[in-house]
Amino acid sequence: MKPLDVKSFVFDLGGTLYGPTDLVGEIRGFLEELGLTGFTDDAIQRSNDAADAWLDEIMFGTNAHAHWEPSHDEFEQYDRIVLTTLGVADNLDDYVARYQHKWDVRIASLKEQLFEGCKSTLEELHSRGYRLAAASNRWGTPLPYLERDGIADLFESVEYSNVPGYRKPSPYMLVQVASQLHVNPIKMAYVGNVVKYDIVAAQRAGAVPILLAWGNVDEEKLAPSGTTILKKATELLELVGSNGHRKEHRQR
To answer: Is 191 in contact with 16 (CB distance < 8 Å)?
Structure first.
């Protein structure tokens, strides 16, 4: 493989640099704390999918901008759909309020932690002259996490959105990063952990796709030809030289 002249690395956050969220597990835990039990994983996932579909329609209908976030009332309506889809009817208003409070506390806790080796890898890439950025599907800026972990100053651009049309697999955020850094997307690598979001977004933007699989064989099997597959973050340093040139590594 011919070495590529990559000038910038852009990173997904959840599941790539930070530990992933077990959404079904989180929902189940909150439901059990409210005394609501007996739901299968499929039922919980369907209830969340129904609420997501409703919220997507809200965003389409209002032509929501990239950094749009649901209001408190919209989050409560989201919760109402989750709970009613699960069959909760009695004391619904009370359950909705208590359920949303648990999410408010959880989000404010900055629970996710950096994976081992990520901070040192980012620092080393930065020291070698690579320009770093982040692009993440999420509500609200991830800066509180980056600042807490002492890595905010390493990133020249931080893009985020959970709005359809802007969120991955749309290439929008990666194109925005390339524009902000004045880097041709062809000379930009995007590092993510989910093929259908991260790798597809990288391909659509014309960036170099890198799958940081953390040993997830299922994702590795889904990776299309041309995807560089890594098991851990520190392997990124094996791909690059000190002057911005990327060395040969295993590809699909």
So the answer is: yes
CA-to-CA distance for 207 and 188, rounded, in angstroms?
5
Number of C-beta neighbours around residue 198 at 10 A: 30
End-to-end CA gap in the chain:
11
Task: Provide the Cα torsion 195, 111, 167, 98; round to 10°.
Answer: 120
pTM: 0.92
Instruction: List CB contacts of 42: < 8 A, sequence separation 6 or more.
Output: none
Element (H, E) at 241: none
Q: Which residue has the tokens 């692009």?
A: 135
Token couple for 132: 């770093």
Distance CA 136, CA 158 (A): 8
Report d(CA 84, CA 197) in Å as an integer: 29
The CA distances from residue 74 to 56, 77, 106, in Å, are 12, 5, 18
Retrieve residue 248's tokens. 């040969």
What does the pLDDT look like over 131-174, one tens digit per residue?
A: 999 999 999 999 999 999 999 999 999 999 999 999 999 999 99
Q: Residue 100 and residue 87: Cα distance in Å, rounded?
A: 17
Q: How many other CB atoms are found less than 10 A from the CB of residue 244?
A: 16
Bridge partners for 160 per DSSP: 136
Of 73, 94, 70, 69, nearest to 83 (Cα)?
A: 94
User: What does the pLDDT look like over 46-104, one tens digit per residue?
Assistant: 999 999 999 999 999 999 999 999 999 999 999 999 999 999 999 999 999 999 999 99
